[in-house]
Amino acid sequence: MRATALRRTAVAATTVSLALLVTACGGGKEDSGDKGKDAPKTSASASAAPDAKALSAAELEKLIVEQADVPGYQVQKAKPTDVVPSSAVTTDKPACKPLADALSFIATGNPGASVQRKAIAEPKKDTASSPEDIAGALGAPVTAVTLGSYDGNGAQNAFASLKTAGTECAGGFTLNGGGEKTKISKVAPEAVTAGEEAVAFTVTTDMDGEPFISKVVAFRKGNTLASFSVISLAGKVKEFPKAVVDAQAAKLA
C-alpha cells in the first residue's frame, strides 16, 4: 500500500525521521547538542578566520531559533533520542556523507559544538476536522534545525563539502542508518539566499517505487553553519521552510 511504503520511506529517509514525526505533537525539554569549547565569543556573525574559535553548546543555545521567533510553528528542543552520532550514518559514496548528515539532524564536518531544534508547521485552526484536514495535519512539514560552530575555517570547509555533495551525488546514493538502507534517487539544486553563502536541495528517495520528497537547506554565517532538513509523513515537501530559515538567519546576523 502507498501509505505503508511512504511510512517505511519516512523511517528510512533519515535516521531521525520517525523520531521527529512521532514526537511532533509532544514536548521536548531535554538538553541536546555536543559539548563544545567554552572559549569566549562576542558575536556569531563575525567573519570566520583561521584563528576563529568555535562557540560552546551553551552559546549556540542562545542563537538557535525558539518558539517566539517563528510564528505558525511549534518549536521544540530536540530530545537525546532524536540526535545520533555522525558515525551512525554512512553512505556508499564518500562524497555524499555531508548530505547524509544534513538529512539526519547531524552537523556536517567537525564542529566544536552543535545544537538542534524541531520546528513543526501548525495546521490551520479554522478548518473543519474532516478526514482530509486530519491527513493534512499529520502531514505537516517537520523541519530539523541544526547549528554547528567550528574552529578556524571549519565552517567554510563543511559548507564546501555539502555543496560538493549536492553536485557529485545528483544521480543518487545509498544512505545507511538506523539499520536501514535508503536509496536516494535524485538530488536537485534549488535557489536560496541566506547568510554569507547558502545552498539548498530537493531530495527524492525511492522506496518500492514511491517517491519521498524532502528538502535540505544550509547556510553559513561566520564560523557557524545552519542546516535544515524538512520531511513530511505525507511523503512530499513542496516548499522550503522560508520562515524558519529567515528567522535563524536573523538570529545569527
Task: Explain the overall architecture.
- This protein is α+β, with helices and mostly antiparallel strands.
- It is built from 7 helices and 9 strands, in the order H-H-H-E-E-H-E-H-E-H-E-E-E-E-E-H.
- It has helices at 2-13, 17-22, 57-61, 97-103, 131-138, 154-168, 242-252, and strands at residues 73-77, 89-91, 113-121, 142-149, 173-177, 180-190, 197-207, 210-221, 224-231.
- The protein has a 9-stranded antiparallel sheet with strand order 1-3-4-9-8-7-6-5-2, with helices on both faces.
- Strand 6 (180-190) and strand 7 form a beta hairpin.
- Helix 4 crosses helix 6 (154-168).
For the structure shown, list the relevant keywords.
globular, alpha+beta, 253 residues, disordered N terminus, 7 helices
> How many angstroms does the end-to-end distance come to?
46 Å
Largest sheet entry: 9 strands, antiparallel
Uncertain segments: 1-43
Radius of gyration: 17 Å
Strand order of the largest sheet: 1-3-4-9-8-7-6-5-2
- Number of DSSP helices? 7
From the helix content, strand content and strand pairing, which structural class follows?
A: alpha+beta
**Mean pLDDT score:** 81
Strand content: 25-35%
- DSSP strand tally: 9
What is the overall shape? globular
Helix and strand run: HHHEEHEHEHEEEEEH
Helix content: 25-40%
